[in-house]
Design goal:
Elements lengths: L12 E2 L7 E2 L5 H6 L4 H7 L1 H24 L13 H15 L8 E2 L16 H12 L6 E2 L4 E2 L4 H11 L3 E5 L2 H13 L3 E5 L5 E3 L2 E2 H7 L3 E5 L7 H7 L4 E7 L15 H11 L3 E7 L16 H6 L4 E5 L10 E5 L1 H9 L1 H6 L3 H13 L6 H4 L1 H6 L3 H19 L3 E13 L2 E16 L8 H10 L5 E2 L1 E3 L2 E5 L8 H8 L5
Parallel strand pairs: 3-17, 7-10, 7-11, 11-12, 12-13
Antiparallel strand pairs: 1-2, 4-5, 6-14, 8-9, 13-14, 15-16, 16-19, 18-19
Helix pairs in contact: 2-3, 3-4, 5-14, 6-14
The chain binds pyridoxal-5'-phosphate.
InterPro entries: PyrdxlP-dep_Trfase, PyrdxlP-dep_Trfase_major, SelA-like, SelA_trans, SelA_trans_N_dom
EC number: 2.9.1.1
GO molecular function, one term: L-seryl-tRNA(Sec) selenium transferase activity
Length: about 500
């Protein structure tokens, strides 16, 4: 800083022993805040925050400069002075970083479309707009506009869900884990629920059927064996203490070979005869036959209800393609009991969820347009040729950005649906692979690349396997491709 009046520095003189006393020259904090370069920061972040950040930055710079000086830097080193605009530039960076949302967008090139860690389903614009409106306006969340009196938030989507599932009634909670918990707590607390040993699922995270059952106060009555369970296993186990027959979708594994499980339709007569409700945790709630879109078949909610399930639970943000929520569909008397459980109040959804869910469900009224309109289905049905064209367009740019240390190719690969939907069915896809070039100078080239991709303004999440980084382009929407390409330049070192 040149031309500053005397006393305008917060320069710290330090006793630096052998190197002798040296001082650093930093502008006073009030001069920084008064400088024109700082005015936009004050307008954006306010005086309190900007002042605190400026003080912290000056203290850091002072420490750094003293260290340099003590390490033998010349006493009159020009490095001992920094001009105000350079300081405000640093300050702007610090403040922007500190004020960045902790929840950030990223590119999901992992090859898993419904990635739980990346927030699962992406929603269509109609849902995005509905959520924005619900954020700004009071809403008839629990208020019946026609009658002018208190209503029930489940009513907002119940009619449509009944239409789409064939169920008599529905209720919505925070997620499917909550749906299962609430159902068990309502129907089987202090009593027994019968589950096949082949269906004692762990979904990942902390969701395990035996644990959730314990939390709901229900006693787990296991029947059959891991690979085979027969109708008579359920029949023999059912007794006066039995509150529920529970079937659970094996979302993330398959049992193959010498196997037998009891279908819902096979179990329904027993449940009816004994007067025991039959519940099915379907996991991903498919509302349409996916085969019509060239995808593998997944049992739909409607099929499950028609087969005789009294209650079906499923997620809103898996194959259904909506917001995070759990849906319980089934017999009206059982749903009424579930809604009276005080836990329902603790597990209910907010207006943003319902605002997003309603337009997503509405899309199902036009199943022929669903692959265009429902984002999840659009991503799942993208033909590999689309991704190949994208890969070929991006290939030279990525090659140039990465330089000679890396070998970049476009390659066929397979995506998976994710979130426990159809775990063994893979979708043909296309993308880019990056391997360390034979003569690469960098060590741990792939690990380094993975870190560089994460450090981008919009972090890129790929997958490392077989000594390569795989970037599956299925989830790179064509209208986001430009932003993806733009930031490749900052990847170059
Ligand atoms: C995914 C899944 C759950 C948990 O659903 P969340 O919506 O993640 O709470 C429960 N059961 C099955 C069978 C699942 O596939």
């Amino acid at each position: 800083m040149s031309g500053a009046p005397p006393g305008a520095t917060e320069g710290a003189a330090a006793d630096t022993g052998a190197a002798g006393a040296r001082s650093v020259h930093l502008p006073a904090v009030h001069l920084i805040l008064a400088d024109p370069s700082c005015q936009p920061l004050l307008a954006e972040y306010g005086r309190v925050q900007t002042l605190a950040a400026a003080r912290a930055l000056l203290a850091e710079l002072r420490g750094d400069m003293l260290r340099v000086a003590n390490a033998g830097g010349a006493a009159s080193s020009p490095a001992g002075q920094i001009a105000i605009p350079a300081i405000t530039a640093l300050l702007a960076q610090r403040l922007a970083q500190a004020n960045r949302s902790p929840l950030r967008p990223l590119f999901n090139l992992s090859g898993t479309v419904l990635h739980t860690n990346l927030g699962r389903a992406l929603l269509p614009d109609s849902a995005v707009q509905a959520v924005a409106e619900a954020l700004r306006w009071p809403m008839n969340l629990e208020w019946d506009i026609d009658m002018g009196r208190r209503g029930d938030r489940d009513d907002l989507v119940e009619a449509l869900l009944r239409e789409l599932t064939g169920a008599e009634a529905v209720t919505i909670v925070n997620n499917n884990a909550a749906a299962v918990l609430l159902m068990l707590d309502t129907l089987a607390h202090g009593r027994e629920a019968i589950v096949s040993r082949g269906e004692l699922v762990e979904i990942g995270g902390a969701f395990r059927i035996p644990d959730i059952m314990q939390r709901a106060g229900a006693t787990l009555r296991e029947v059959g064996s891991t690979n085979r369970t027969h109708p008579h296993d359920y029949a023999n186990a059912a007794n006066a203490q039995t509150a529920l027959l529970l079937k659970v979708h094996c979302s993330n594994y398959v049992i193959t070979g010498f196997t037998k499980s009891v279908a819902v339709a096979e179990l329904a007569p027993l449940a009816r005869d004994r007067g025991i409700p039959l519940a099915v945790d379907l996991g991903s709630g498919t509302l349409v036959d996916l085969e019509q879109y060239g995808l593998p078949h997944e049992t739909t909610v409607r099929e499950t209800v028609a087969a005789g399930a009294d209650l079906v639970t499923f997620s809103g943000d898996k194959l259904l393609g909506g917001p995070q929520c759990g849906i319980i569909a089934g017999r009206a008397d059982l749903i009424a009991r579930i809604k009276r459980n005080p836990l329902k109040r603790a597990l209910r959804v907010g207006k943003l969820t319902l605002a997003a869910l309603a337009p997503v469900l509405a899309l199902y009224r036009a199943p022929d347009l669903l692959p265009v309109r429902l984002t999840t289905l659009r991503l799942l049905t993208r033909p590999a040729a689309d991704m190949r064209a994208q890969a070929q367009a991006i290939l030279p740019l990525l090659r140039r950005a990465l330089g000679a240390d890396y070998d970049v190719r476009d390659e066929a690969m397979t995506s998976q649906i994710g979130s426990g939907a159809l775990p063994v069915d893979l979708l043909p896809s296309h993308g880019l692979t990056v391997r360390a070039a034979p003569g690469a100078r960098v060590r741990d080239a792939l690990g380094m690349l993975e870190r560089r991709l994460r450090a981008l303004p919009i972090p890129v999440v790929g997958r490392i396997a077989q000594d390569a980084l795989w970037l599956d382009l299925r989830c790179l929407d064509e209208d986001q491709q430009q932003r993806f390409v733009e930031q490749l330049e900052s990847l170059a070192v």
